[in-house]
UniProtKB/TrEMBL annotation:
Homodimer. Its EC number is 5.4.99.12. The gene is truA. One of its GO terms (molecular function) is tRNA pseudouridine(38-40) synthase activity. It comes from the Bacteria. This is tRNA pseudouridine synthase A. It catalyses: uridine(38/39/40) in tRNA = pseudouridine(38/39/40) in tRNA. CDD domains: PseudoU_synth_EcTruA.
Amino acid sequence: MGEMNRYFIELAYDGKNYHGWQIQNNAYTVQEALEKGLSTLLKSPIGIMGSGRTDTGVHATQQFAHFDSPIVLEKSEFLKKINGILPPEIAVYDLRAVKPDAHARFDANSRSYIYKITLSKSPFFKDSHWLFYKGLDIEKLNEAAAILMEYTDFESFSKVHTDVNTFLCQLFEAKWEQNGQELLFNISANRFLRGMVRAIVGTLVEVGTGKLSTQDFRRIIESKNRKEAKAAAPAQGLYLCRVSYPESIFI
């Protein structure tokens, strides 16, 4: 086989009908849909590697993946054709040539998520937000979110059966903002654990309703025990929204 060309694609997807990102034997995933589309377009079997996995029902407004192509690709033609093949819930926005050893997962500097809550019923938010009727104190939410920034070990918010070597994550941002009836939680880190953001949100809202104090929240982090944290927030409110890379990997 001749020399392969490595590319990064930037994409977005509505995760409602997908069993997450990661390819599985008996469930339809975003990765599978993309690999099928790319293999059809390039007329050879194409495997892709994403910047990270998202769980069943979780969305992405910005996700990256890399793949190797046996042919040199031209961006505008590629984007037109791949978007014509892919299902309507998945869109590819960009194609960039990268160095042969560039890696969508390992080269990422940071990842950002946004979690969306709506405080009142909306027909337009049913698959995109967590409908939360109980009152939430945004000052308390932000007081608790700021406590997260003091820590690096987030074992309390990780799925228990997971294959990671470390529960350490460096957080860059954790804050809430209110936009009318929407509450938005922004969180950025160098890496995230499985289920981490939804477990954090599910626990933070207990502070926001007054069921937990900020001291309780600190104690949960320090316990390093998932059983101490609260139930995970629903998948439909979570979006992977930004992944950043060093410019040096691009050609």
